[in-house]
Amino acid sequence: xAAEPQGNPWALRFTTLTIVLIPVAVGINYVGKLIAAGLKxxxxxxxxxxxxxxxLAGPWVGALSGAxxxxxxxxxxxxxxxxxxxxxIAIGLVVGYxxxxxxxxxxxxxxxxxxxxxGVAAVVSTPINVILWEGQTxxxxxxxxxxxxxxxxxxxxxxxxxxxxxxxxxxxxxxxIVSYLIFKALPERLVGLFSxxxxxxxxx
Amino acid sequence: MRLSLYVxxxxxxxxLDPMTKLLMTVVGIGLTFLLPxxxxxxxxxxxxxxxxxxxxxxxxxxxxxxGVAIVAGTFLVVQGxxxxxxxxxALTLGPIVFYREGLLVGLRLAxxxxxxxxxTLILVLVTHPSDLVEAVVRRGASPRLGYVIMAxxxxxxxxxxxxxxxxxxxxxxxxxxxxxxxxxxxxxVPVMGPLVTGSLIATEERALALEVRGFSGEGRPTFLKEExxxxxxxxxxxxxxxxxxxxxxxxxxxxx
Lengths: 204, 256
Description:
The complex is a heterodimer of chains A (204) and B (256).
Chain A: H1 16-38, H2 48-76, H3 85-100, H4 107-133, H5 140-151, H6 156-185, H7 188-195, H8 199-203
Helix pairs in contact in A: 1-2, 2-3, 2-6, 3-4, 4-6, 5-6
Chain B: H1 12-15, H2 18-34, H3 38-54, H4 58-67, H5 69-82, E1 89-93, E2 96-99, H6 100-126, H7 129-138, H8 143-172, H9 181-211, H10 233-254
Antiparallel strand pairs in B: 1-2
Helix pairs in contact in B: 2-6, 2-10, 3-6, 4-6, 5-6, 7-8, 8-9
């Protein structure tokens, strides 16, 4: 069993080790998305690295991993992803803070964490969708719901939020659960290394 | 595998320094929101395409444009059907009615999508990522952040190779990667788990290697290459700022 992350969640953990963690986190996001597509899963699973970085090294490193992820994705695949930088930052912050305050201590709590992350992602993305695309997301399932709701006279903001939420909920829930399963299987030494409890190194 | 949309070349846009291209991209995105009308948006798109065309990267841009065509299409369909200001029917297909106002909103959204894309592609298609990072670090951005961005571009191809090795290894041990959704979902963790553990263990070594090379040193690093700014860069910047000024003037004085 891996140790739980400990210490002040808002402590800055920008050591060489955690800086090196950020590119790896972005790489995990990228490869996770590709494997999910390769297995023909109906989910993106493209923020596992951001979530893991938050669980391992706290909210700041998680947030920076999210930001770098969208910059890289914007530069290499999809220029529109620059706009959703804020969503990724929010995911990293929320996971990092809650992981260090006991929200990954049991499977039940992790499910709640996944729901919180999905909610935050949808709340943060909604204004971006409304400003850029009148509230649409470009996802076929979400936009079908949006069409049905706006057609019945629902306000754009609410329809846009549900458009985003219906896509985010299964995806972010699965992302957080998968990240937790991987996190639990990590060697204890690694977990301590990134969270800053370097007693083992110091005692040498 | 190529992990960048960058298209090598030797046009005037390629030779421009990254900061000028960054300015062009930012102004292009700014103008997209300044000129929401169909006419203004079309004019902007023509300008942006002219820049991309003179850089000789339209064929790569076209691939990106086709990729988002479905999104642009959904804008037209959804807004045409349910835009709250819909009043005048434009097209009736059986029980489905598309309205003029909504179709125009959808068209404007599609135009906005393509304008934002085109403006960003000036930077993305014609600037090598490492040149951009170097230019930003030269102007005071943290060299550590610069390292992070550059390292991602190197680490992703390596990790993808590792992932396919792990996938083969797990398959040869009997892991099912095809079948029902649940079977495929269950295959995800045995592939990602070893990849994550392996990559994290490697970070420790990489951190040590960086430390002995003075990564956490306090001084500003110097640069291997001299920065080359072509003489016409100033003119290009002035024209870009003038375009922004024209957009602002047109919006508020002429009501574009």
